[in-house]
Amino acid sequence: METGNQTATSKFILLGLSEDMDLQPIIFGWFLYMYLICVTGNLLIILAIISDSHLHTPMYFFLSNLSFTDICFTSTTIPKMLVNIQTQSKVITYEGCLTQMYFFMIFAELDNLLLTVMAYDRFVAICHPLHYTVIMSPRLCSLLLLLSWLICLAYSLLQSLMVLRVSFCKETKIPHFFCELAQILKLACSDTLANNILQYFVTSLLGIIPLIGILFSYSRIISSIVGISSAGGKYKVFSTCGSHLSVVSLFYGAGLGVYLTSGTAHPSRKSSIASVMYTVVAPMLNPFIYSLKNRDMKRALRRLFTQLTHQLMQT
User: What is the pLDDT of residue 254?
Assistant: First the structure.
């Protein structure tokens, strides 16, 4: 490797959301608060589903995995950002940056695929209710989850290996609060044509195909709703699918904002807001969305709170 304009860099500098020192305590407080809410809310969803036997169904199986994914998703970026603000150091090692990027891509795509699988689950439950337990068997649910993980691991590993072949300039400042693939490639001094082609092709493929699956599932669901004569039946369907549709809209809306602004060399305020919505706000709101209109989840959460309170009083 040449040593003039290129170097075997050992670290990157994460510039964060703002370089204004007066804003750092505010940013730290807000992100710590949102991170704790996100982790606590999703953890309660997981515990409620595990503790209530009535929720041991395919829908809640995938919901618990989605909550676990959301915890991991935010944990790949926010803790490092909080540590950097607290220590007033913006440095992240080369290995740490690639590791963060690797896990970020895994859980971002896993979120996407789980939402697609959950849409398929709702399609089967509403359009083929008599065959639901046969189609959505424990074996199929496990296979769908395993397939989602394998796709995400292969996708992230491929992107990470492609980054390893890239050499970087001495100026290694990332204008972001985490190591994003598009921003890392902007720092490269070597040719990144293959990386860019792979990034846009695979990202578009893994974004469009799941979206088509979700749209197909809900187009069939809407067709089934039209055929339901009773208002009570329609309300039950809407209450079942409303939460999932809200989460899908939030996820794809924020994800589209990140995708459209990821190609810029210096992210704007809109890009930063889109990234925050995608990496923090959406995972934080998911537990509230899924529990607000879900009677079974509300009952399970109340039972969980009662059990936890009883155990605390005994100790």
Answer: 77
Burial class of 245 by CB neighbour count within 10 A (0 to 12, 13 to 18, 19+)? middle
Rg, the chain, Cα only: 22
- Distance in angstroms (rounded) separating the CA atoms of residues 141 and 122: 13
The conformation of residue 22, written as its DSSP 8-state character, comes to G
Nearest to 17 by CA among 273, 197, 247: 273
C-alpha count within 13 angstroms, C-beta hemisphere, residue 182? 17
CA nearest to 104, candidates 86, 78, 123, 82:
78
| Sign of the torsion angle spanned by Cα atoms 232, 233, 239, 245 | negative
Q: List alpha helices for the chain, DSSP H.
A: 24-51, 58-75, 78-87, 94-127, 132-135, 138-164, 181-186, 193-226, 231-261, 269-276, 282-292, 295-314
pTM for the whole thing? 0.89
- DSSP annotation of 188 reads B
Token pair for 314? 């005994």
Give the per-residue SS3 of 104-149: HHHHHHHHHHHHHHHHHHHHHHHHCHHHHHHHCCHHHHHHHHHHHH
Q: Residue 190 gets which letter from DSSP?
A: S
pLDDT at 229: 61
Rounded CA gap, 160 and 199, in Å?
11
- Under the banding of pLDDT at 50, 70 and 90, the label for residue 235 is low
94: which 2 tokens? 């080369």
pLDDT value at residue 89: 87
